[in-house]
Amino acid sequence: MAMVIDGKRISEQIKEEVRQEVARLKQSGRQVSLAVIQVGDDPASTVYVGNKKKACEYVGIRSLSYELPGDASEEELLRLVEELNGRSDVDGILVQLPLPGQISEERVLKAISPEKDVDGFHALNMGALCVGKPGFVPCTPLGILELLKRSGIEVSGKECVVVGRSNIVGKPVAMLLLREDATVTICHSRTRDLATVTKRADILIVAVGKPKMITADYVKEGAVVIDVGIHRVPGSRKLFGDVDFESVEPVCSAITPVPGGVGPMTIAMLMSNCVESAKRR
Q1: What local confidence, expressed as pLDDT, does residue 236 receive?
Q2: Catalytic: 52?
Q3: Selected catalytic residue, list 119, 202, 227, 244
Q4: Which domain, by its residues, includes 34?
Q5: DSSP assigned state of 157
Q6: Helix (H, G, I), strand (E, B) or coil at 248
Q7: Which of the following is catalytic: 15, 52, 158, 171?
Q8: 10 occurs within a structural domain
Q9: Region of poorest pLDDT, from 44-53, 141-150, 190-199, 227-236
């Protein structure tokens, strides 16, 4: 029977640690603050922003909310980002994605000061990760590494396979694993005979965006499987990951569920990054 990695429990541990650190900073006269910007009223984005605000409230981080209309111009958003960059009372800036079509996500993310880029998406922070320098790491990859460490799963010397090469998950998690002395292979849509590659993995991380794509045929006996995907069945509240949990769970040694695996870790690591920003600044 595989160990089901409880991301909700681990994320609560991290948020409690962050809450204590925020309280210590507050005692020394330092209030940690996160500015959250949402453009438009996309329902999924509204839910995500609401969850981030709740997490801020729980750990004691001051949440500054900026809601722009869906027809806001790119210049208007960039002016707001520039204003927040210059404010000494703002430690982190988060622009909720996706943005409306008239706004370039690349320009907006580039405009955020790297020192306040708690999402870790700025090119300078990505570059710092690649060359092993200090910087902010995207929250989901950082959460995956914490899941492994806090579950007692050794990464050093292991063969890790990452399915997916996005800038948000695939590439940065591969860099993090390399930093932890793993041997890493990245797979993608052009990878030939994917199952042959994934079955080599001691640790298999799946962030491909296709529901139940990875079945038992793709997994080595005793592997650790981390499922980053999340998909909702139309007309249902049921959620699925990129991994077919029912078929894979009997084969692997440890696996993350969906929901309750990687998902809760993303916001926990965002809170952690905010505190790190305050301490650095």
Answers
A1: 76
A2: yes
A3: 119
A4: 29-115
A5: T
A6: helix
A7: 52
A8: no
A9: 227-236
Q: Are residues 207 and 147 in the same domain?
A: yes
pLDDT tens, 2-34? 999 999 999 999 999 999 999 999 999 999 999
What is the H or E stretch that residue 13 is in? Answer: helix 7-27
Q: What is the pLDDT of residue 92?
A: 98
Catalytic position from the list 38, 96, 202, 220: 96
Provide the token pair at 77: 């958003």
117 a catalytic residue: no
CATH number where 81 lies: 3.40.50.10860
Q: Are 155 and 130 in contact (CB under 8 A)?
A: no
Question: The domain spanning residue 188 has which CATH number?
Answer: 3.40.50.720
Based on the fold, state whether residues 200 and 105 are members of the same structural domain. no
Mean residue pLDDT across the chain: 96
Structure confidence at residue 1 (pLDDT): 81
How far apart are the C-alpha atoms of 84 and 62, rounded to whole Å? Answer: 14
Residue 220 lies in a domain: yes
Query: Which residues sit opposite 224 in a β-bridge?
Result: 203, 254
Domain total in the chain: 2
Provide the 10 A C-beta neighbour count for residue 196.
10
pLDDT of residue 207: 97
Torsion on CA atoms 45, 51, 53, 57, rounded to nearest 10:
180
Has residue 21 been placed in a domain? no
- Tell me the pLDDT tens digit for each residue of 74-110: 999 999 999 999 999 999 999 999 999 999 999 999 9
* Predicted model pTM: 0.94
CA angle, residues 94, 110, 118, in degrees to nearest 5: 30
